[in-house]
Amino acid sequence: MTDAPAPVWCTLEQPDGPAVTSGEAALRAVVSNVLDRPFTCRRITIDLPVGPDGGALTDSPHRIRVVALDEGWTIEPGQRPGSLTAVPSSSPVTLAPGESIGIVLAGIATNEVAGAAEVVTTVVGGVDGETVEHSRTHEVGKIKPEVRIDHFAANPQSVEYKGKIQLSWEGAATAPSFYLQVGQKVPFELTERNGLKNNNGSYTFPLNQELTTNTPIRLRAVKGEAENGAITLVTVNKGDVTAGDLTVNGVATLLRGPSTLTLDKKVWSSKEVPTDGMIAAAARTGDANKNAVLQISVLRKGKLRDDTELHRMTATSTHVDRTENVLVPVPKGTAVRITKVKEPDSSVFTATWFPIGSGDFEVNT
């Protein structure tokens, strides 16, 4: 038995948003064949860490239930609490290039301690007659509900030169302290006096600043010792040209300009990035009968063969005349993998790197 090629892996999504302590979470596992040949899948195992501490996801594994599973599959109990295995109902299932299998878990009663839980997925199957096994560790964060930030976004996401935006997000009905950082300016607190509105947990804030260059905007929620953050990026059409680490009057540090990533491979990956940043990616199918799917994974590099996937976002285009866009935050010290999961003829994929600090974005060859 050997390790599967890296393009065959299981990814994990949180369809209901970030998990909060003492709440209920859902997880969607998706096994994708991104090889150029069939992959025979025999077994998919999901191991959730169980216990009362921050490194565990739940201390009530008996409440976990499978709410969605592809036809032709069945669930077997795992060897320990918090573990379950999906197996084909009859013979092994063969995935053609670009095909996927999905499993959705719900009723995951998160424990009371905030932290990062590591969920392990293991896929066993075969490629060209050889048995392969591939495991991946996924980090699932748990945050205190009072500092929850969901769907943080700018409206509009792209503006003309000196344009203005409004920010919106979902959170706790009782507001924590919110702090906003625009580009590299000093963060400031959001209050009712400067425009923050709270409609029972639906927040809006008008940013009365003229934007002249592509600008990352960070939101931070703080209540006691609990803290959480989110980031979005606003692009400016025909904005100011930025140059390296140029400093104006010893005060304002300009960001490096955005760079276009050349997606000339089915699986494209980077080395560790030297600064926080964002990737704006897009997919458009070239076939009216087939979807184009682009996946962007952000990985924490490890000493072992498998890296830890922090999060993944997908751009799925279903119409030849419609481009689907995603905006992916990339923390400093992580790496990026971009995969063309489904690529019908004449499809178009693009990705642009927007750095927040200095340092070059290096591509693995």
Provide a quick synopsis of the model.
This protein has 365 residues and is mainly beta. 0% of the residues lie in helices and 56% in strands. It has strands at residues 2-3, 8-13, 19-20, 24-33, 39-47, 65-69, 73-77, 83-88, 93-95, 100-109, 115-127, 130-143, 150-155, 158-159, 163-170, 177-182, 188-190, 197-199, 202-211, 215-223, 226-236, 247-248, 252-253, 259-260, 267-269, 277-284, 292-300, 308-317, 324-330, 334-342, 348-355.
Give your account of this protein's structure.
- With 365 residues, this protein is mostly beta strands.
- The chain folds into three domains: 2-143, ntegrin, alpha v. Chain A, domain 4 (Immunoglobulin-like, Sandwich), CATH 2.60.40; 146-253, Immunoglobulin-like; 259-355, Jelly Rolls.
- The chain is 0% helix and 56% strand.
- It contains no helices and 31 strands.
- The protein has strands at residues 2-3, 8-13, 19-20, 24-33, 39-47, 65-69, 73-77, 83-88, 93-95, 100-109, 115-127, 130-143, 150-155, 158-159, 163-170, 177-182, 188-190, 197-199, 202-211, 215-223, 226-236, 247-248, 252-253, 259-260, 267-269, 277-284, 292-300, 308-317, 324-330, 334-342, 348-355.
- Strands 1, 3, 5, 7, 8, 9, 11, 12, 25, 27, 28 and 30 form a twelve-stranded mixed beta sheet that branches. A five-stranded mixed beta sheet has the order 14-21-20-16-17, with no helix packed on it.
- A hairpin with a 2-residue loop joins strand 20 (215-223) and strand 21 (226-236).
- The radius of gyration is 22 Å and the shape is globular.
- 33% of the residues are buried.
- Mean pLDDT is 82; it is low at 1-7 and 241-255.
